[in-house]
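Annual report, structural modelling task.

Input specification for the magnesium ion complex:
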Amino acid sequence: MGEFDFIRHFLSCFEKARVPVGPGDDCAVLPPARVPVCATVDSVVEGVHFTRPFFRLADVGHKALAVNLSDLAAMGARPRWFLCAVSLPSRFSKAQVLELARGMAPLAKRHRIQLVGGNFTRADRLSVTVTALGEVSGKGPLLRSGARAGDVLYVSGSLGDAALGARLKGRAPPSAARRQKRPEPRVRLGLVAALYARAAIDVSDGFAQDLGHVCAASELGARVSLQRLPLGAALARTRMPESEKRQLALRGGEDYELLLAVPPARASAFEKAAGRQGEKVTAVGSFTREERLLFLDAEGLPVVAPGGYDHFL
Ligand SMILES: [Mg+2]
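The model returned the following structure:
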């Protein structure tokens, strides 16, 4: 099967893009933008982000688009268009191309993002690179630098199940494995956040690290109540010391949840609006003028250890 057959089979899984020029020419042509457009790109690479057959091809297709949708959500952007570049090891079959596309297409449909172009090439290992474009909504874009001292720190959904899936691999509870392989980007919550929040980031590297990015960009610190962190259901049920569970929730990464800074005056309206969209959000702390991350125990006392929070957590 040649490149053109790959493209034809891949495209057959997606709805036809409603744009001036879609796949098939040298470039796609998009309609004139009514609002600013957010653009992001990310790759998933065999041996780096996934291994086979632990990841099915449908998982790879889903995840490649999901991680980009998560970045759009973190800006409060409405997904519109994407391009997809696939590197295939030789002897890839038509069935395999279709499986990859069929993992990606339902997610694209759910979030109304249209495939407008892409590329297929041969390579030593499988990788999928997606470039996604979205329109700024509400008061967006939500930047990492927008938080102010006193803002409430929210996290969506739950933390740590994806990391549990990655750690236990084949022995992971199915729900944890699913969180790792098929993350659900918080696109709807991002659109709500664009109306209420001042800053946002998606949790790809781990709660502590990504919170650190917001703090650094906003020139602030934060206080986080460890008790309030929403642990994933699979992680909460797992037999493991509490400190280790907390470790996975704070550092595991790949949760693809949103961290949000919301002014206190808008906090309750934000919680109601998120609830109406079926999105769970938890207030886990607040941003502070003092530029350090402080994790508090059940008594509200700072958890301190020699070498700083880094070594303790
Ligand atoms: Mg991100």
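The first strand starts at residue 37 and ends at 45.
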